[in-house]
Structure formats: C-alpha cells, structure tokens
Amino acid sequence: MMRRKNSLFAAAALATAALLGLAGCSAGAGSSSGSGGETPTTATIALTGTPTNLDFTTTAGSAIPQALMSNVYEGLVELDDSGEIVPLLAQEWSVSDDRKTYTFTLQEGVTFSNGAPFTAEDVKFSFDRVKTDWVSSLKTKMDVVENVEVLSDTEVAVHLSTPSNAWLFSLATPVGAIFTPEGVDDLANAPVGTGPYEVASWTPNESIVFETRDDYWGEAPGVEEVTLKYFADATATTNALQTGDVDAIANLQAPELLSSFEADDQFVVTSGTSSGEVSLSMNNRAAPFDDVRVRQAVLYALDEQAILDTAWNGYGSLVATYATPTDPYYEDLTDVYPHDPEKAKELLAEAGQENLSITFTVPTRPYAQAVSEIVVSQLKDVGITATIESAEFPAVWLDEVFTKHDYQMTTVLAVEARDILTVFNDPDYYIGYDNSKIAPIAAEADQADEAGYVEGMQQVARQIVDDAASGVLFLFPNITVAKAGLQGLPENAIVEALNLTDLSWQ
Amino acid sequence: MAIRILINLARFAVTYVVATVVVFLFMRLIPGDPAQIALGVNATPELLEQTRREFGTDRPLVVQYFEWFGGLLRGDFGTSYLTRTDISPMVLDRVQVSLILVLTAMAVALLVAIPLGTWAAVKHRSFSGVAIGLGSQIGVAIPGFLAGILLVMIFAVGLGWLPANGWTAPAEDFGDFLRRLILPVVALASVQGAILTRYVRSAVLEVMSEDYLRTARAKGLSANGALLKHGLRNAAIPVITVTGVQIAALIIGAVVIERVFVIPGLGSMLLDAVGNRDMLTVQSVVMVLVAITLILNLVVDILYTIIDPRLRRSA
To answer: Which of A154, A346, A395, B246 has the CA that lies 20 to 30 A from B170?
Structure first.
C-alpha cells in the first residue's frame, strides 16, 4: 500500500526534475540568427499589428501594404527615405506640356514571381483594375486617369482628365502596385508581384515568411529569407529581441521600453520620422466645437511638447497639422498656437463657454491611452472638463466616431502619407471641416506645376491651421531597435511600406 | 448506466443547439460592422454595401443563422471575413495548441497537487501541512499572467535560459517545442496546482473524518492504509469534478497566458477575431469551446459512475 503512495510522490518529483533539467540543458542556447560566427542569411523582424489577410485591394489597414509594398509588389515609382519620388519599375518618365499625359519607359527584363514577364500591358491591367475591382476608397486616387495607352512592350502613356500632382505621388502608394492578370486569383493568400521577395508562407496573426527571388531584376537583398513576426504587444517584442528570437523591432510602439537597449551596444536604436499624426480631432459640426473660438482655445490650452515628453518619452516631433516635414509643401506652423492658457480662457469666455464639459472618446490603443490623461489635465487648467470615454478600436471607434460622427473630441493615429486633403477637403469626413475655403485652392494646386503645387498646398495648410480645424498632438516617431550587425532597415516610415530590400548582415 | 449516458448525450445536444443561438445573437448585438472594419477609414457607403453583400451580412438573421448552423453540422465553419480562408483548418490547428498547453499544465498541476494536498491533509497539524496550506493559498492569489511575466523576466530575459515567447509545433522541432512549452506550462500549472492542492487537501480531510475510515481502522488497517484503500477513491470524486471544470476554464483562461507568451492558441484566435468582428470565426471558436466543456462534463459524469459503484445501480 505504501508503495503506491510513494510512487505518486516519485512521479511528481520526476516531473519537476524533468522540467528543471530541461531548463538547465538549454541554458545559453535559444538564439537565432545574428549570434554565430558566420554571417547569417536570414532575418526576423518583429512587428505589432497583424495583417488580416494579404489583399490590400479589398481590406483596410496599414499592416498589409506595410509588409507587401516594395518587398513583394512594386510600382512604377517609389518614395525614397527623404520623401522624394524616384523611379522603380519605370526607368524614367516625361510629362506633356499640358501636364495631362505621362509617358513611362519601363525597366526591361522584369518578371513576376510566377514567371510572367512584366510589360506595359500589366501597367494597363493594374491601373484599370483599381477602378473596377478594388473595394476601398483609395481607388478614387485613380479616378483622374482617363485611359492607359500601351505604346510598346516597354512604353506606356497615361492620360489624365486634368493635371494632377497628387496622382504621381499616389503611384508610390498601394494604388500604384503592379499586378499580372495571372496573379490575382487569390490575392488574400498568394500575392504575386515583381518585388525582390515572394511570400513563402503566411500564418494569419503569426508570421509572414519572405524568400528572395533568384530572378529578381534589380539588386538582390543581402539576406535570403526574412520573417515578419507579429506580436500583440510591445513588451513581447522587446522580450523576443532580448532573448534572440527576433533580430529587430520595426516601429516599436512603446518608447518606455527603450532604455535597456540604448545602454547596450549589442543593439542599435534609431528614431526616425513617419507620416503618422497623433491627432486631436474635434467635431467641427457639433457643439461646442462648431465654434472656431472653442477649437482655438483647445489648441492654446495644450502644451504639445509636454504631451510628447510625458506620453511618448520625448520621441517624435511636433507639427501643426497633417503636413509633415517629408512633404514637399511642409512649413513649420507650430508657433501659431503657443501654449497660452490665459488666451485659451479668454477665447472660451468670448464664446460663452467658461464652464465647458466635453466627452473625450479615446480608442483602445497604446498611444491614445498614453496621451489621454495629460490632455484632460491640460484642458482642466483652462476650465474644460473632459470626461474620457473608452472606445474599442477598431470596431466601436469606427462605428461611433468615424461613421456616425457621434463624438465631440477624439484622438487617432492617422498613418497615411500626404493625407491632409483626405482629412480636411471633405466635409463628410468625420472631422466635418467646412472645406469651402480650401477646396478651390487645393484643386488649383493639384493642377499647377511643382512650384505652384507647393505654394498652393502651403496656403491650404495655413488656412486649416488658422481655422483650428483640428489639432495634432505630435508626429509619431519611427523607432527601430536592431541587433548591431543588421543593416538596411529604413530609418523613416514615410509611406506605409516597410522596405526590406536593403537588408543585410555585416 | 446506458440510460444515464443517453440522458447525458441528449442534454449535450440540446445545450449545444441553444448555445449556437445565444452565441449567434450575441455577436449581432455588440456594436461594430465587419464590412466597416474590413474597409476601415477608406469606406464609402457604396463600398460598404458591396462588402456586406460579399460577406453575406446583409441577409436576414435567420438565413445567416441556418446557413452557419448547417455548416456546423457538416463540420464546416465557413470562410473568415477577414483572412478569406477556411476557418475549420485554422481552428483545428489552434485547438491542438491549446489542448497541448492546457493538458500538459493540468497534468503537471495534478502531479504536484495530489501528493501535496494529501500530505497537507494527513499532516494538517504539522508544520509541513500548514506550510503547504499557506503556500497554496498564496499560489491561488497570484494571477497566471503575473506569474507568466515574472517567469519571463527571470528565466528568459534575465537568465536567458528559455525563450521568452513563441511556439514551435512538436513535429517540427521537438526540443524547441519543449523549451517553449516550459514557461507557459509552469505559469499555468503553478496557479492550477495551488487551486487543486487546496481541493485535494479539503477532500482528503473530509474523507478522513468519515465513519467508514474509523471502521476500517478498527478492523486493523493503519491510518495511511485505510486512507489509501477506502479514502482516496472517495476523495477523488470532488477532485475529478473540479479538474474537469478547471480544464474547461483553463482553455478559455489561457488566453492571457497565450497573449503573454505569444502562443497561437484558441484564446488568442478568439481575441483577434472579436476585435475584428470576424463573426463566423468568433462563433466557430466559441462553439468549439462549448463542445469541449460539454464533452468534459460528459467524461466527468462517466468517470463518476466508474468510481462510485452506487451510481451505476441508481440509474
């Protein structure tokens, strides 16, 4: 009888010993690429925010183009790290005198990852397809295209109905991606592009594995395989980097976790710029923010530098509106509304809103939670009582704030590049800004030459700031942490694409 | 006994069907439109309409329900709105991961709890007995995710002995599978072990005061002998119940541990799907969880009849 009881104890002891033993055996191991003597040929990059599928022509979210543009799909042009439009699949292009016809000379010897050759027909197919098959309002960026004319295998002319500066820029975004007719059957799972990588495997919510292509037309990346690993939160990414499970974190979402990496020369931390504005949106169509004085009072009340320092450890930069330093028309307007609580109180008094109570709808995202408390406390100093109401993101926020416009004040990260007109030149957009003053200027700027474009867009931006249409708390930084030997991660995040084509180990 | 099992099966079927209706309706009650989420801030009314048609969410609820339910009967969960892939194989993958995690944790917890709890009961007046009782009380109070974070900080980030997160399938690399399994299993098992230790302890304590044990001792068995021969079998009944209930709870509760350790289990799948209002996926995962819970109940019931001969006669 005692034997049976002892055997139970023995089993428990054995199990415990086995677990501890396993832990002991593996001590010191557990490092992937980057730590051996030889130069590794693979790289694993940690990201937060997983793509729901691989088809950005029908599904929203920046995660899909982040992974696929530049790497799997290429456009005729792309944006370099300083925001300049440079050739990619087009060797060069010319613009007609009336600025309505763009003639592109295409790269030769380019193939898609399914082996199909890339020709002018594919450009026509891709641009036409945006209008017919895309389910996303991004498709409107192609509305200005009247027709695409194939001149030869390597020459294509695009005729626009009116001149458009914005259109050429759009070609560097997902709407400019080039597809092949034989490669669009299962975009959600099996993308086919001309880029240096092809998708070797995809596990929803977990990872995407890229392999470099032998038949890539351009310069091959310095690694053979790249894995994008998706994590639900930032702490998990830093743990994974520290234990060697990943080689880099692209766009870290928690600057407070950086200190241990900054002090360690095994890692390199960079903080670049991005096109993501952490907005403070005020509903221009509903009281009390239908009064420009109340909106201006809020902008005077806020100390954006203090918000940036408190909420995001000082990483990031300050901008006045949705024009960012990498846009050609950027100008620094941050001094229009200096931190001036007295002025804010005066404006509120003028508007008859001395004891103002508002609701601040905060989406359930780390940046939003981080800024909300300090915004509330700064507003309190000028007599505005803001009550935080949490909105699940994306479902509830999209439904209540974005679609039904049922909110007073909210904050959201707007990641799209050159989105100032998307946000403000549409009175039906959730901010509800009266665009009557900017619409004609914006239309004229789009059709003008380059200098006219810059001048016009600056005027638009100034008008939006003067009207206090909405605030921008800060411009999101692009924080990257990588193992010291890993080179070529882009420093800035100007477009959605996370360009991994220059990746290499030193 | 056959009738008893038949009754159980009937109860199983009815509960399951009722659950499908409840789950289906609840998913429609919470705010958030899947088409809106798929299109994001680039949605226009026409595109929304088109996407709803594509998803089938524009059809009457009754039609949607029966189509889904019909699929369930055939074992086909349908196609996810968002990933645009079949749900069934994904769920199957995830179930395996969750079951491996939870059953391993439960086995470890039982291996620790049964001897410890019995010891704590038998020696409930001694120092070691009191210490185990106290220790298990503290263990119950520590949330699993906290244990998980602490384990990661110490053994992964601090000492570098084990990976901090991630999952490898056993067929792919068994060694790596085990290394990645250890920390989440310890995190889950420490809390479960503490809970079960307390159950075992009180069950054994209760049994020890029963008349039949005194009778057995009067017939000449030693205290330990009487407990082993007659007591533990009776003490096992409440422990089995609680184990069954805890396994079911653990599969759902493991979501937090799955999040901490980035494990692609059912829990994290559910969380992602709810966030994206991927209704068909949510419904499917929930129904799998309901099925597991009901099956566990069935197994517990059957185990009762095996352990306790009186139940065999009564039905």
So the answer is: B246
Beta-carbon pairs below 8 A across chains A and B: 171
Instruction: Give the DSSP per-residue string, B108-162.
Output: HHHHHHHHHHHHHHHTTTSHHHHHHHHHHHHHHHS-HHHHHHHHIIIIIIIS--S
Distances (CA, A) of B18 to B96, B129, B270: 26, 46, 20
B184 prior amide bond cis, ω within 30: no
Q: Identify the H or E element spanning A356.
A: strand A356-363
Q: In this complex, is the C-beta atom of B88 within 8 Å of any C-beta atom belonging to chain A?
A: no
* Cβ neighbours, 10 Å, residue A263: 9
What is the band of B1 on the pLDDT scale with cuts at 50, 70, 90? low
Tell me the average pLDDT across A420-429: 94
Determine the pLDDT at residue A28. 35
The better pLDDT of the pair B80, B137 is held by B80
Sort A38 into a burial class: Cβ within 10 Å, 0-12 / 13-18 / 19+: exposed
Helix spans in A339-449 (H): 341-350, 366-380, 395-397, 420-424, 438-447
Claim: this prediction has a pTM higher than 0.90: no
A86 φ, ψ (degrees, to nearest 5): -125, 155
C-beta atoms surrounding B16 within 10 Å: 14
Residue B108 contacts A where some CB pair is shorter than 8 Å: yes
Which chain A residues are closer than 8 Å to B179 by Cβ? 22, 26, 29-30
Spell out the residues 6+ positions from residue A411 whose beta carbon is closer than 8 angstroms to its own: A278, A279, A280, A281, A360, A362, A363, A367, A368, A371, A372, A375, A473
Contacts of B106 (CB under 8 A, 6+ apart): B189, B192, B243, B246, B247, B250
The position carrying tokens 């259109």 is A167
What is the rounded average pLDDT for all residues in chain B? 86
Report whether pLDDT(A315) > 70.
Answer: yes
Neighbouring CB atoms inside 10 A of A323's CB total 26
Q: Using CA coordinates, name the residue in chain A closest to B182.
A: A19
Distance, CA of A347 to CA of A383 (rounded, Å): 11
Q: Write b or e for each residue in A491-505: b if 16 or more Cβ atoms lie within 10 A of its Cβ, otherwise e.
A: ebbbbbbbbbbebeb
Q: Does the beta-carbon distance from B262 to A58 stay under 8 Å?
A: no
A 10 A CB-CB count for A290 gives: 14
Task: Return the residue in B41, B81, B94, B114 with the most chain A beta carbons within 10 A, the one to mutate for interface testing.
Answer: B41
Chain A residues touching residue B44 (CB < 8 angstroms): 137
Å from B12 to nearest chain A CA?
32
User: Which amino acid belongs to residue B98?
Assistant: S
Distances (CA, A) of B145 to A35, B184, B248, B256, B265: 30, 9, 18, 6, 15
Q: Which of A76-90, A220-234, B65-79, B206-220 has the lowest mean pLDDT?
A: B206-220
Of B280, B86, B40, B58, residue with least CA distance to A59 = B40
Q: Do B37 and A395 touch (CB under 8 A)?
A: yes
